[in-house]
Amino acid sequence: MRRILAAAAMIACAILLPTRLHGQEMSCSDSMMKGGKSCTMMEKMKDMMPPPPSGSAIFDAIGGEVRDLDADSSTDWSKVNLEELRQHLIDMNLVMMTATVAATNVDGGVKMTISGTGATVAAIQRMLVNHLNMLQQSGQYVTTVSKTKTGVVATVTAPAPATDKAVARIRGLGFAGLMTVGMHHMRHHGNMARGDSMPHAH
Fold it and tell me: Nearest 5°: CA angle at 182, between 179 and 186?
């Protein structure tokens, strides 16, 4: 029980530091470590905590990669390419926020016409072609994608023998949900930041 209470106190200290009492800022050692015990561990815990959201998803995503790069002693800074990651995140934002999607059910899944204007057209084509290829490689989906003047036409179906549940899931996910499927996203972002990933074709 003492260990549990001590752990809880350490976590609370890391989260709440610094605190204010009677209008004066207090350190962890002032407020919770009056027995002469060190607060170093809690200060380290606080340093390990990610900063609060800035309000910009792109800023926070790049900031997370920077923290990972800094924390890894093997990082080769001569290869780091955060600008490529920024351009990719801009594509993601354009596709998710400004693309127009028209979906119709087909046997085994869904057919989607994804279109846009201006910079969104190229973003759709870069994102959808690469992402649907990754879904195809997973073995859990059958995908086709072809470019149009304003974006792409894509189909996503369940592999045979398709169950009703698998088909309903694809249709329920739709464009937005399918774009988030797969663990390759964060891996791709990390590799891109390190300069170890092929950029999306322009």
Answer: 95
